[in-house]
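Sample entry (232 residues):
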Amino acid sequence: MQGFFYLRAGIIAMAMRPQSAAPKPVRRRSTGIRTRAEIITTAERHFAERGFEAARLEDIATEVGIRRAGIFYYFRDKQELYAAVLDAVFSDWTDAMPAQGSPAERLEASLVGWIDYVAQRPSVARLILREAATAQPGVVSQFVRSGSAPVEWFRAVIEEGMASGELKPIIEPHRFMSLMGGITVFHFAAMPWLSLRSAVDPWSRNELEKHKSEILHIARNMLGIASPKQTG
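Predicted structure, serialized as tokens:
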């Protein structure tokens, strides 16, 4: 009888105990997407500053706040992570390219946007310079594959402008793209030591506007685009 009493009391106590709310479902997908993005962002800086070979997955993982093995949950190996970094670098720029306007207007807007992009994301210039230093003839690198979308965008817009007669280029499209990309990348890398006596800051607003004006002047001459003064 006494045992029955204790059992009954226990059941009553359990029934009166406040029921805790059901646990919220773990949002594993959103957390995983965020962690993957953090890995790519961190890896971009490490690859840009140290190069592919010297960049250490241990350092990237530590900065993100995960174990080294955690990186392999998202990427098969270091090469796949590097490919993801380059894909992100070029897709972010490609997504910002203008879709409206004449071929000349789109080209000029994209060049101005390219300068702003490199200025705001210094790792881009470093990655390009490192890739240029290690490029091998006849080898299609991951850099080339990742950068194919903006290259095709420029090629298509230039061909469209040539077909309409708006553009009358004096050089081939691939040479134009090489010059435009190279000028800006080298500008940010070299201007600080080319101007030691005058201490030019290529990231200042005034210098950015000067560089944009210079790039547009060169581009208009190479593509045969009438400048605003000529059309006004």
